[in-house]
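Researcher: We're reviewing a set of sequences before deciding which ones to prioritize for further study. For each one, I'd like a predicted 3D structure that I can look through quickly. This is Phosphate transport system permease protein. If possible, include the structure in token form so it fits the rest of the review sheet.
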Amino acid sequence: MISKEDSPTTTRAPEGGARVPKGKRRAGDVIFAGGAQGSGILILAILAGVAAFLVIQSFDSLMANTANFFTTSEWDPNVREEPAFGVAALAFGTVLAAAIALLIATPVAIGIALFIVYYAPRRVAAVLGYVVDLLAAIPSVVYGLWGIGWLVVELGPFYQILEEYLGFIPLFAGPISTTGRTMLSAGIVLAVMILPIITAMSRDVFQQVPQAHREAALALGATRWEMIRMAVIPFGRPGIIGGAMLGLGRALGETMAVAMILSPSLVISWFLLQSGNQTIAAHIALQYPEATGYGVSALIAAGLVLFAITLVVNMAARFVVSRRKEFS
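Model: Here's the predicted structure for Phosphate transport system permease protein, in token form for your review sheet.
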């Protein structure tokens, strides 16, 4: 026998609430579900629209280009008869600057997050967390002014030490740039800029580690560092990777700070202490005001490459995180 309360035509509601027919949904549920679905579709539509705009606007210059767009470093698209330009040096500089920033910022961010969550007193942790979050609110042009006005000058002696003791490594070979406007300087500024992003993500995921995991490690005789290494970091690895990739995306697309620090140059150079290299975003910002004809379309084509690089990086990060679902 099926009781009246368990009838298939009704759904039992919480105590004090009215029963809702099983085949009927509340208006609020329908509106919320439709809004959420529409938001997801809107994001995809915007992404597709941006990609279509970049492809369409860059088509003319790519068809007229007489150089290999992906392998050459030449950039002279305003010559109407034989425009020639390539993105090789710009793409190299973009990836190199972002990689330097990620290598510097990630371990520092993880250390700050662990200190805030597991080592610092509560009041100190609250103040330090606020200060780190405040770094994310500073405009990029301010970071650029700080980098060009103070950092590049103060890094001079440090660069001399690097050349003296590590000059046998090609990355740190001389001669050192007298201006300090090098790829390493740009990478350090970018590292400071992405530091709050990685720290915030790591801190949040470290705070979500189950108490039982931490207590079990400590009960087995592990020290605090061993507990962090065996229980906290494995659990938080997807969050760390996600935060690092968000920071990498910020570093890849940063414009003003890099444009203010690096000297405009279209070369592929591994020498971090010498002037050279440029990023796609900075090159677009510097060249766009004076670009005409094929020059505008060529810069949009460079933006298309930057769009593709960022998309690939984020897709790779999502793939890595999805393989660590057992720690989610």
